[in-house]
């Protein structure tokens, strides 16, 4: 097989790489994938999106059983946590998902090479074994880099995946920590902090900025922080961790004000470092191949995902744009469709984002702060879930929907949702905005009753004219 010439060799089998490979095979290309993990799916399916959502669901049910069923007339004894079973279920979900990708590779006749991929030059990819030696050399017409991202390290805090863990280690804890400190109030930190808080940990989140989840609409962020605080999560904002000492009983953190001031110490059983991710570009042979990077350390590509070297492409977390699994998948589809002579395209301005806490937070398009900075006149339509009948019936009335529309044209410029089913609801907003819908357009679409999506309809009506039920 190594003597064959492929139409495309993909480096990385995460949500960008495996989707690109499948789509390329569907389009008639002869495809090979080089993946260093023993299982397919990359960080997302193995130690990211999928296992974290499995734990979020299980921990949500555990908390619900302990606190939220009596109002429904369901009386149960205080639940007992079987952490081993909870972790087994998470592992089973991951196993089934990665095996599903392996089945799709076989179905589409995609050649899989296990090892690290390194570009030798345009048209040649080396597959490295565990010892770092070249095990295979693949010839190809096109190369696609889909190597994803890795955990951003924090100076002065060494991750050992035992006491001081990354998101990977936080998915594998053997017991519920009494005191968990999360460094970083972004999506990953708040999701995993929520998991262990629900299961019984005392959780403190330390954030360098003076707000949580930077980039999210300010009004949503403030509501979100209040909701998490009511659940018991504590926050130290405008603070930085400058050191960590691991002891037999836990970790002692040194924390200072971000703007300067006296240091303090904070004790924890487990520390989760979640300050972000960075493109994984080391060892890919980029320098040797002559592939240019941006000032931010990402791979530079043109409008068709081609790098500075003809025939070599890149997608997902290693290039500009949101570092999200679904964005990487869309990049991959658009890239290989262009290779095959079609017209692939991704609108990075309309990639939806979701935080899978409770309540969920989801958004697409511009925030109020971005519109103000751009000098765009806009209208705001808001609708609370307390006014939505289905949300009341579900006992999930936390949050609201906010629609931002152009003041002159009524075109929807942004939708922001905080609520129990925000992640599902945002798809309707993304679809509407992709087709340049106005707030009136969304408001005049007949929405089924009773559904939580009616809150989006009412918020759109509020942006256009007036809501009916408020």
Give an overview in words:
The protein is α/β, with parallel strands linked by helices and 470 residues long. The protein is built from 14 helices and 22 strands. The protein has helices at residues 15-26, 42-47, 49-67, 83-107, 167-170, 187-198, 218-230, 286-289, 325-339, 368-374, 389-394, 422-434, 439-444, 454-464, and strands at 5-11, 31-35, 111-114, 116-121, 124-128, 134-145, 149-151, 164-165, 179-183, 202-207, 234-237, 239-246, 251-257, 264-268, 270-273, 277-279, 312-314, 353-355, 360-365, 378-384, 400-406, 412-419. The strands form 5 sheets. Strands 1, 2, 3, 4, 5, 6 and 17 form a 7-stranded mixed β-sheet that branches. A hairpin with a 6-residue loop joins strand 13 (251-257) and strand 14 (264-268). Helix 3 runs parallel beside helix 6. It is globular and about 65 Å long. The termini are far apart.
